[in-house]
Design a protein that fits this description.
heterodimer; A: about 270 residues; mainly alpha; MetI-like fold; 12 helices; globular; B: about 270 residues
Chain lengths: ~270, ~270
């Protein structure tokens, strides 16, 4: 009788079923296909084949290079903006912040297409070997808003007294910035990094649209393998996806150490 | 004084970078020229007429809106019952459900898309509306769950008990006591779900029916697969409309928020 009675916690059962079928099971499939061959026998060849190919390794290195550069540029450009909006008494900094976040609502494929139009307009699109530069510009353009938001949140919360104490104790402004402000804004920096670096290695819309089909990143590689129509397309795609997944968990583990409990900078937060 | 000038200059420079592509499209949406950069002397609304007679784009817009609404609604129901169920379960279950919910948020979209494509093949409805909607639900529902959870934590547990003591059935107590209290969380979760769905490309392309297009896939196919200049003039008009709509919504939202704040101050 008790089992049939309605209880709030029973609402978790359909939810758990959905999670099991559409979140957990798909991941298990990736692991399964990554370690088996076309006949279902255990093998490591999906991984060895991947790393044996110089093309794949080059793509891997270039993709990380693009992502690294985009992340650094986002931080270098975005940090001062977030700092100025949060700290200095610029008029209407609330409205300004809103202006920085607003582009996030526009469909990101349309935004990327708009960037292609601009680059073409400026004559940067066809002129020789700018594919990589254009891709990086596109990534910075697309991810700058998501860099600024968590940085702003963290910098705004910094205790003014701590910064004043530093200058009262004789620290020069630059010294205060490097030794107090910057370390204290680490949670924002780390979450900005995770929100830019990961998509930059996988979101191939930007590299395809702006790189004139000459820039391949890891995400595109997975898509290519999966849709290649070859006999081992699932296996090859799953192997790269699994490597990526492991990388994500390692990044999360590292960044988790910097994160506060009240994770106010998670993706999408502050958007609404 | 000089410092302030530079500060302001820097902020506006970055803003200019963020808005230049969009504003370029807005300006050229009123020009009949096929290609951005070459002016035509006709300044008119011909691109807008073009947009509203282009069946392919209109269908893509319609698909995008339907998809966002349906998948956000399902995500909202799913995320809400999940959060309630998890919150009132044992600590261990709660942690397990909460952790699994985070997976689609943390994971790369390409991994989600690929893994979903494989499961849909097994379940026998790969590349149908059903797979597309479920795909979008998977990327959206965690945001509802994560928005509802904090509201449940703020809830006074005695209210529900009081309802039961006063004779309400558990279902009635859930609907008339818990739900109204967590409504703000459900609502912001729904809005986030809509945003995520509207913005998605990768999961869509891995789960959609072959001939179906959303704004994302249509634009990608037009711009990424073509040559150097693959301008689709009608999309300029569409981008402009979306841009104006978003600005209006944000402005109204902001003005309302300011009024609410002022009222709170009084």
């Amino acid at each position: 009788m008790n089992a049939l009675k309605f209880s709030r916690k029973n609402l978790g059962i359909p939810y758990a079923v959905f999670l099991a079928v559409f979140v957990i099971l798909p991941l298990i499939l990736i692991v399964y296909y990554a370690f088996t061959d076309a006949n279902g026998a255990f093998t490591l060849s999906n991984f060895t084949n991947f790393f044996k190919s110089p093309t794949n390794v080059t793509i891997l290195i270039r993709s990380f290079g693009i992502a690294f550069l985009s992340t650094v540029l986002c931080l270098v450009i975005g940090y001062p903006v977030a700092y100025l909006l949060a700290r200095s008494n610029l008029k209407k900094s609330g409205v300004l912040l809103m202006l920085f976040v607003l582009p996030m609502w526009i469909n990101f494929v349309l935004r990327t297409a708009a960037m292609k139009e601009l680059l073409y307009f400026l004559g940067m699109y066809e002129s020789g070997k700018l594919h990589y530069l254009n891709t990086v510009i596109g990534m910075v353009y697309d991810y700058l808003p998501v860099t600024i938001l968590p940085l702003y949140t963290v910098i705004q919360k910094l205790d003014k007294n701590v910064l004043e104490a530093s200058s009262d104790l004789g620290a020069k402004p630059l010294y205060t910035f490097i030794n107090t402000t910057l370390p204290l804004s680490m949670p924002g920096i780390v979450s900005a990094i995770t929100m830019v670096f990961l998509p930059s290695t996988t979101s191939y819309v930007i590299s395809d649209t702006l790189g004139n089909s000459k820039v391949t990143i890891i995400g595109k590689l997975i898509e290519n393998k999966f849709n290649s129509g070859a006999a081992d397309s699932w296996q090859a795609g799953s192997a790269i996806a699994l490597v990526l997944l492991l990388l994500i968990f390692v990044t999360m583990f590292i960044s988790g150490k910097f994160q506060n409990d009240d994770d106010s900078s998670a993706r999408g937060n502050g958007l609404w | 004084m000089v410092k302030k000038f530079f500060q302001r200059g820097y902020v506006f420079l970055v803003l200019a970078f963020l808005y230049a592509p969009i504003l370029l499209l807005v300006v050229y949406s009123f020009n009949a020229s096929k290609e951005i950069g070459t002016w035509s002397d006709q300044w008119n609304f011909s691109l807008y007429t073009m947009l509203f007679t282009d069946d392919k784009i209109l269908t893509a817009v319609w698909n995008t809106l339907i998809l966002a609404f349906v998948s956000a609604t399902i995500s909202t129901i799913l995320g809400t019952i999940g959060a309630i169920g998890a919150f009132y379960s044992k600590k261990r279950t709660q942690q397990l459900l909460g952790g699994a919910t985070q997976i689609p948020v943390i994971s790369a979209e390409i991994v989600t898309g690929l893994s979903l494509a494989m499961i849909f093949v097994f379940l026998g409805f790969y590349r149908t509306w059903a797979s597309l909607i479920i795909g979008h639900v998977v990327i959206c529902f965690p945001f509802v769950f994560l928005n509802v959870m904090p509201k449940l934590k703020q809830l006074n547990p005695n209210l529900y008990e009081a309802g039961l003591d006063l004779g309400a059935s558990p279902t009635k107590a859930l609907f008339s006591i818990i739900l109204p209290e967590i409504m703000p969380g459900i609502f912001s979760g729904f809005l986030l779900a809509v945003t995520m769905s509207l913005d998605d490309y990768i999961v869509t392309t891995f789960t959609k029916p072959a001939t179906l297009d959303t704004i994302s896939t249509y634009t990608y196919n037009a711009y990424a697969k073509g040559g150097a200049n693959t301008s689709v003039p009608a999309l300029r008009a569409l981008s402009t409309i979306i841009f104006v709509l978003i600005i209006s919504v944000v402005l109204i939202n902001n003005i309302r928020g300011n009024k609410a704040k002022e009222q709170a101050r009084k």
